[in-house]
Amino acid sequence: MNIVLLGAPASGKGTQAELLAKKFNLYLLQTGALSRELSKSDERIEEIINSGKLIPQEEMTMHVINFLTKTKPDLKDILFEGFPRFISQYEALESFLKNKGDDIDAIISLDISLEEAVVRISSRRTCSKCGKTYNTITNPAPNGVCECGGELVQRKDDLPESVKVRFEYYEDNTKKLIEHVEKLGKLTRVDGTQSIEEIQKQLVDIVEKVKLK
Ligand SMILES: [Zn+2]
Predict the structure, then answer these.
(1) Which domains does the chain have, with CATH numbers?
(2) Pairing state of beta strands 152-153 and 124-127?
(3) Pick from 99, 149, 103, 152: which is nearest to 124 by CA?
(4) pTM, 2 dp
(5) 152 alpha carbon to ligand 1 midpoint, in Å?
């Protein structure tokens, strides 16, 4: 069972993906974390990420496929967070999985507005050590530090201007993918403005149904 979780910046998809992966014992592929990892050894990628933009679509597909081949070669029970974002990436991933006898079973979109995203993002903090994200309002770190002991910082791409760029990018590009998979009958929408618990409950229900198929 392979699931894709889509959501604009600050939709809470990172937190939800972590909870969902734990609940169903899914392998979590977070492309935000993968991109930041790639940026450590590549200045060009670092610049793209810091400006709030995305790694070019085909290049990102290649990174994801390479990474999966290395870390999850059986390609089973993966939760994709932040990828695919474009129809081209969706089709490339789907055909890669199908060639290995697997598929994308469901796509979930966590919906949120730009105004809400900007409010939420200014309260987001990221662990400088392991990359785990917190939110000073909705998901605070118990002692002001990460559970791994790392210091919490505000990422450059979480600054308001950068958020706007990322949000508009997301809307412009992912809208087409969402419409595409909606026609295929694979899309489920979830209201991202609800509480973390309520959203998680709905996501669990969706995944339970996919499992029964
Ligand atoms: Zn940490």
Answers:
(1) 3-112+172-212 (3.40.50.300)
(2) antiparallel
(3) 152
(4) 0.81
(5) 8
> What is the identity of the amino acid at 99?
N
- Cα 133 to averaged position of ligand 1 atoms, centre (Å): 8
Angle at 110 between CA 108 and CA 116, to 5 degrees: 170
Taking the C-alpha atoms of residue 93 and residue 193, their distance in angstroms, rounded to an integer, is: 29
- Contact assessment for residue 65 and residue 34, using Cβ atoms and an 8 Å cutoff: no
Tell how far the Cα of 132 is from the centroid of ligand 1, in angstroms. 5
What confidence tens digit (pLDDT) does each residue in 184-213 have? 999 999 999 998 999 999 999 999 999 887
How many angstroms separate the alpha carbon of residue 11 from the centre of ligand 1?
21
Q: Map residue 107 onto helix, strand or coil.
A: strand
Separation CA 151–CA 132 (nearest Å): 11
